[in-house]
Amino acid sequence: MIPPIETASAAEIKAFQGQRLLELLAYLKQNSPFYKALFEKGNIDINTIKSLDDLASLPITTKEDLQKYNNDFLCVPTTKIIDYATTSGTLGEPVTFGMTDADLDRLAYNEAISFACAGIKEGDIVQLMTTIDRRFMAGLAYFLGLRKMKVGVIRVGAGIPELQWDSILKYKPTHLITVPSFLLKLIEYAEAHHIDYQNSGIKGAVCIGESLRNQDFSMNALSKKITDKWGIKLYSTYASTEMSTAFTECGHGIGGHHHPELIITEVLDDNNQPVKNGEAGELTFTTLGIEAMPLLRFKTGDIVQLHDAPCQCGRNTVRVGPVIGRKQQMIKYKGTTLYPPAMNDVLNDFDAIESHIIVIDTNDLGTDEILIKIAVKNRTDTFLQELKDHFRAKLRVTPKIEFTTSEALRPLIFNPMSRKPVHFFDNRKS
User: Fold this and answer.
1) How far apart are alpha carbons 296 and 275 in whole angstroms?
2) How far apart, in whole angstroms, are the C-alpha atoms of residue 47 and residue 50?
3) Reported confidence tier of residue 249, pLDDT bands at 50, 70, 90
């Protein structure tokens, strides 16, 4: 199930997206209060935009714009809104996104081609281990996409290993959709209760919220821990509420495939200029085919690298590599630039660490301070020194590390108001 545009040549994809961009600009000028005002204020004549090469002359859109002018992005009357979703609010106030019936169809299409990328097909059964309620777009998107594919869905929701295994053993799903670290909880429960998970019938898991790979696409510590225990195929996927589009790996595991019929992607530097080919920068996108709240050159805050070498799966689209970090979560510590995912990877190298959180504060000198709280079975000075040495070897610096208990960390990591586990707490002064 590969859409023809995704196997077209790079030149054909560029021409196709250029035409879709012109259609989007006309739609925004006609229907979007925010973009109409933006074009007028900047004296922007959209008729001067002739192709994708002219995209860089258009203004960017930020998360702050969405937060401040949320309702002005709506291009349709509220009577056409079928579903309301909100962003997670990880980096600020949550933003509401309305979706029309056509937008929900687009969402289903996106997930259908994304899950097909990950090898799911008609006749499979998928266990959904994420919430579908609380205005969470992703859970709804997964359900709609699987339904479109004629795939059976078991809507278990997040957490509760006992309930997950009860459903797995009863309904025999072939694939799971889950946060990857939760797979370790499933394995731990299965081993403690003598469940033969190796012969459970699970073929693969589409993993959300946490990275599976290093920048060279080799498996990181988390995915190694999972697959060393459980021989299932793991697929990484990257998406956001704002883009209503997913970048999902195929079986070759070399980045999330771009869907050019749904989204235009750019990678920009701090001056909003495209980075050189192969360099990392801030992922910026323009949505295509969205009726209620389309976005033009929206900066995600995620630092990524695009890859354009051919993929053996036959798709000729660019691929998004693992997220290096979020721009607003960048830490300057003792002269070294760090992102939370790099610290998570170091911590995941140690099986003894049961859980952890990373806390960032500003000290009296106005610089960043890092405190990592870990829960381990056996607290020893030797282990603490080994962990510090590993940080120094991998990241060139050693943050402050404290022992605590799993009981103390659990309510912080699994906050009932959050849709996914939270390991990073940024208390810095803005």
Assistant:
1) 18
2) 7
3) very high
The letter for the amino acid at 231 is G
CB-based contact 66:34 (threshold 8 Å) = no
Query: Model's pTM, two decimal places?
Result: 0.85
Question: Residue 91: pLDDT above 60?
Answer: no
Average confidence (pLDDT) over 204-211 = 92
What does the pLDDT look like over 66-84, one tens digit per residue?
999 999 999 999 999 999 9
Q: Which residues are CB-neighbours of 409 under 8 A, at least 6 positions away?
A: 355, 356, 357, 373, 375
Residue 428 has which token pair? 């810095």
**For the chain, how long is the longest CA-to-CA vector?**
68
Helix axes 101-117, 137-148, angle to 10 degrees: 70
Predicted confidence band of residue 333 (pLDDT cuts 50, 70, 90) = confident
Question: What is d(CA 343, CA 131) in angstroms, rounded to the nearest whole number?
Answer: 27
For residue 318, pLDDT beyond 90: yes
Q: For residues 320, 322, 324 and 325, what is the CA-based torsion angle, rounded to 10 degrees?
A: 90
For residue 158, count CB atoms less than 10 angstroms from its CB and return exposed for 0-12, middle for 13-18, buried for 19 or more: middle
- CA-CA distance, 1 to 55, in Å (whole number)? 30
In whole angstroms, give the CA distance from residue 53 to residue 12: 14
DSSP 136-167: -HHHHHHHHHHHHTT-EEEE--S--HHHHHHH
Give the mean pLDDT of the chain.
92
Which span out of 160-169, 406-415, 421-430 was modeled with the highest average pLDDT?
Answer: 160-169
Which residues, 6+ apart, have CB-to-CB distance to 360 below 8 Å? 329, 331, 368, 369, 370, 371, 424, 425, 426, 427, 428
Q: What is the CA radius of gyration of the chain?
A: 22
Residue 303 Rama label (left phi>0; alpha psi -120 to 50; beta): beta
Q: Which of helix, strand or coil describes residue 394?
A: helix
Whether 88 has a pLDDT exceeding 70, the answer reads no
Q: Tokens 């998970």, residue?
A: 197
CA distance 49 to 271: 21
Confidence at residue 20, expressed as pLDDT on a 0 to 100 scale: 97
Q: CB atoms < 10 A from the CB of 407, how many?
A: 9
The pair of three-digit structure tokens given for residue 155, joined into one six-digit string:
């809507």
Which residues share a beta bridge with 206? 177, 235
**Kind and range of the H or E element at 223?**
helix 221-229
Q: How far apart (Å, rounded) are the C-alpha atoms in residues 227 and 289?
A: 38
